[in-house]
Here is the input.
Amino acid sequence: MGGEALTAEDVLTAVGEAAGRAAGRELAAWRRAHPQATLTELELAVEGALAAARAQLLGRLAGEQEAAEGAGRACPHCGAPLVRRGRKPRAVLIAQRAAPLRLGRTYWQCSSCGTSLFPPG
Here is the structure.
């Protein structure tokens, strides 16, 4: 351990590994509770566990993208600098997920014309 800073790839790898371990524990507990499960029931349990891991990874990736886009953000209408106005919840519909993914996204407002927006995506 040379005190090197973690890269974004290191962080995402760690989040992915943690999400995978959590999904594995969830499935092991489910399997113990359902030893006679059918293939369809097993498939649904796996999909549910993977959906939770997918949501965790997507949330992390979206947060990192948002942070990268935040520097030097300008109003799309007048070009003036945007100012952060806090974080607000946002529900995003994504493929492979019946319920919306809930993200905390930074809310921006133009310092000149007052236009307000969430980052794209």
